[in-house]
Amino acid sequence: MEAIAKKTREKLLRTIIIDDEEHQRKSLERLIQLYCPDLKVVCLAEGVKSGLEAIKQHKPDLVLLDVRMTDGLGFDLLDQLKPLDFKVIFISAYEQYAKKASAYSSFSYLLKPIDPDELIQVVESAGEL
Fold first, then answer.
1. Residues 31-76 pLDDT 10s
2. Alpha carbon of residue 78 to chain centroid
């Protein structure tokens, strides 16, 4: 039984959510708890500066990253971390950033409000890589 539990823990993707709106962070965390058992949220951050610190401290496998935040763009954060050693899923209310996100080798781009079915599909794909 312990071996099964250990195997389950090993496959969890360590995940950080970075969004400047607290209700968005909490909502996304709740969606993950309900629908994405392969993710383990290790930290919530509210902007570029706190997100940068969180990524350096927690070394995530996956970052769910808002594009526009009060202290800068998600792209600003990623520019400070190149090369990236984690997957990025951009989450934004602004579709016009999708093309730029692809230049950052983002894994996916989800529009707010987040559709749980889309989140599940993207997370399952991320776990297969």
1. 999 999 999 999 999 999 999 999 999 999 999 999 999 999 999 9
2. 12
Q: Give yes or no for a contact between 62 and 126, defined as CB atoms under 8 angstroms apart.
A: yes
* 19 DSSP assignment: -
- Whole-angstrom distance, CA of residue 28 vs CA of residue 17: 8
Q: Is the CATH code 3.40.50.1820 the one for domain 11-123?
A: no
DSSP state of 114: P
**Model pTM?**
0.88
Q: Where do the domains of the chain lie?
A: 11-123
Please state, in angstroms and as integers, the Cα–Cα distance from residue 91 to each residue in 2, 11, 15, 119, following that order. Answer: 36, 23, 14, 10
The number of angstroms, rounded, from the C-alpha of 14 to the middle of its chain's C-alpha atoms is: 9
Q: Which two tokens stand for residue 32?
A: 């993950």
In this structure, what token pair is assigned to residue 80?
């400070």
Inter-CA distances, 59 with 15, 31, 42, 43, 64, Å: 9, 22, 10, 10, 13
